[in-house]
Amino acid sequence: MVINRTVLDQIYDRYHRRCFVHPDPLEFLYRYPDLRDREIVGLIASCLAYGKVIQILRSVASVLERMQPAPYFFIRKASPREIRGAFSGFRHRFTDEQDLCAMLIAVKSAVEEYGSLHRCFLAGMREEDETILPALTAFVRALSSESSGCSGGFLPSPSKRSACKRLNLFLRWMVRHDDVDPGGWDDVPASKLVIPLDTHMHRMGLALRLTNRKQADLHTALEITNAFREVAPHDPVKYDFALTRLGIRDGLSPNEFLAACGMT
User: Fold this and answer.
1) How are the residues of the chain apportioned to helix, strand and coil, as percentages rounded to the nearest 5?
2) Is residue 193 packed enough to be buried (19+ CB in 10 Å), middle (13-18) or exposed (0-12)?
3) Model's pTM, two decimal places?
4) Mind giving me the DSSP string for 27-90?
5) Mapping DSSP to helix (H, G, I), strand (E, B) and coil, where does residue 203 land?
6) Residue 149: C-alpha distances to residues 10, 105, 192, 197 (Å)
7) In this structure, is residue 58 part of a structural domain?
8) Distance CA 242, CA 245 (A)
9) Is 156 inside any structural domain?
10) Which residues touch 37 (CB under 8 Å, ≥6 apart)?
11) Rounded Cα gap, residues 80 and 100, in angstroms
12) What percent of the chain has a predicted confidence (pLDDT) above 70?
């Protein structure tokens, strides 16, 4: 299937704008100009990005409220015991205080070793890698080495064939830099990003015949990413935000988009 780039660009021009972000946990990142804060906020917001959006926003806001005056300062200064105390009783659907604290303590360990999450991620990157998946695998390993109590569902790894939707969403936020994605990890190539495969994107991929796989797993995410790479080789997740606005905002509906692509 050849994707209709003209239609995709029309959707991108119409919806890839800051005014269409709310309600989305991405909006929390805009409050933090310091990259060291923003990457920690991005990891928290993306890991909690499941369930109803109102609940997601409340949960992320609750975490950040307890990390004042700044997430990076909090992580550096708080002891593991103080972190556990600060988030006692926290729960977001299937994520409890044990999962959250285990990850934050692992973040603290990574920041102490590398100086930032950015440098921790770069430690796993190799120029010859086609995608960011090997680096993401190493990143998850680094954040799991100190967090044996953290469930694999909260910090999934590509090595387990997970599509890692939330972590790939985090990477989109941190790597791409435009009116929507705040970026900051400028030395990670956008060309190596993998599509954050949620239910909507999977359905769109099936409708556009970018994949025929029924499982929303890593293989499917890579098939869809490779299809978008044919259109935008330097930025294969370029259309992710705009396409996920379809059916959410007034205007072009998913059915109208598919009709414009000659799929109905």
Assistant:
1) 55, 0, 40
2) buried
3) 0.93
4) GGGGG--SHHHHHHHHHHHHHT--S-HHHHHHHHHHHHHTTTT-HHHHHHHS-HHHHHHHTTT-
5) helix
6) 46, 11, 31, 26
7) yes
8) 5
9) yes
10) 70, 71, 72
11) 12
12) 91
Look at the chain and report how many structural domains it folds into. 1
pLDDT of 5-55, one tens digit each?
888 898 899 999 999 999 999 999 999 999 999 999 999 999 999 999 999
Strand intervals (E) in the chain: 91-92, 95-96
Q: What is the pLDDT of residues 152-170, one digit of tens each?
A: 568 899 999 999 999 999 9
Q: Kindly state whether residue 126 falls inside one of the protein's structural domains.
A: yes
Residue 192 in this model has a pLDDT that exceeds 60: yes
Confidence at residue 148, expressed as pLDDT on a 0 to 100 scale: 46
- Is there a domain that residue 4 lies in? no
91 DSSP 8-state letter? E
What's the DSSP call for residue 181?
-
Q: What is the pLDDT of residue 150?
A: 55
What domain range is 70 assigned to? 34-160
